[in-house]
């Protein structure tokens, strides 16, 4: 589970993916896209993974797609870069384990779209955010058009997408683009603590909850009620609900195992 452009590490139930092109501010190129997809395939196949952290090496999270990939032949560049990224993001969306983005420096273009697709975002003070695509004369990708309106509403999403301006950490927090803003020196430890908390939780229930929430915009009330009932029944077949009930009646903290 390791590639030079993507460093993959594991500590217990937590897997960390570090985008590793620091000299290019971790701009997403074809090799990195395929490494990300390979890592997500392994994560999706491993039920022992209970939390995933995405972060960037060097001075930034991800400064966008690699423009050199697009410059020589824009159409072929899109065809080479987007399919592996899209499949990786789809897998990230379907797994049970929550995904945390640990963001610093800059998150722009495809990096911002990828960040928006994560469940939680912890950002270092001073980080700048910019959807940026419009400044190049194109639209967003990697799920940005799906996630952004859901997070901030259509009016704010259009402003962010069409103006292509930098967004400060303070505004990102106010708009709901990030969950928490922390001093840079505290970001790593805070993300670790956050991931450990999630990794000790009911992973199967997390998976159902995150899919229910994300899918709620596409269902009417009847569809939402049906989806909730089906998910609840699946959780009822697992050990975690039985443990949660036992812990409640025994007045103790539950010890979830993720299934």
Report what the structure shows.
This protein is of the alpha/beta class and 259 residues long. The protein has two domains: 6-199, 2-enoyl-CoA Hydratase, Chain A, domain 1, CATH 3.90.226.10; 203-249. It is 52% helix and 14% strand. It has twelve helices and eight strands. The chain has a six-stranded mixed β-sheet, with helices on both faces. A two-stranded parallel ribbon has the order 5-7. Helix 1 (30-44) runs parallel beside helix 3 (74-94) and helix 4 crosses helix 6 (144-152). The protein is globular, with a radius of gyration of 19 Å. The chain starts with 5 loop residues before the first strand and ends in a 10-residue tail after the last helix.
């Amino acid at each position: 589970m390791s590639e030079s452009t993507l460093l993959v590490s594991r500590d217990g139930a937590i897997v960390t993916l570090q985008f590793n092109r620091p000299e290019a501010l971790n701009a997403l190129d074809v090799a990195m896209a395929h490494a990300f997809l390979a890592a997500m395939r392994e994560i999706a196949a491993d039920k022992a993974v209970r939390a995933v952290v995405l972060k960037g090496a060097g001075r930034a999270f991800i400064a966008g797609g690699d423009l050199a990939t697009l410059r020589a032949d824009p159409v072929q560049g899109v065809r080479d870069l987007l399919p592996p990224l899209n499949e990786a993001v789809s897998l990230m969306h379907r797994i049970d384990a929550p995904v945390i983005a640990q963001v610093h420096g800059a998150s722009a273009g495809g990096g911002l779209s990828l960040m928006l697709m994560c469940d939680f975002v912890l950002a270092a003070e001073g980080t700048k955010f910019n959807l940026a695509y419009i400044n190049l004369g194109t639209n967003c990708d990697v799920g940005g058009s799906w996630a952004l309106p859901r997070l901030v509403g259509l009016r704010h999403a259009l402003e962010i997408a069409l103006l292509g301006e930098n967004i400060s950490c303070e505004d990102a927090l106010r708009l709901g683009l990030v969950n928490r803003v922390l001093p840079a020196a505290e970001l790593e430890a805070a993300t670790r603590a956050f991931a450990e908390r999630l990794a000790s939780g009911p992973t199967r229930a997390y998976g159902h909850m995150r899919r229910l929430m994300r899918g709620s915009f596409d269902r009417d009330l009847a569809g939402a009620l049906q989806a909730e009932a089906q998910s609840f029944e699946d959780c009822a077949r697992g050990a975690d609900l039985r443990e949660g009930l036992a812990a409640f009646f025994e007045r103790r903290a539950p010890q979830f195992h993720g299934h």
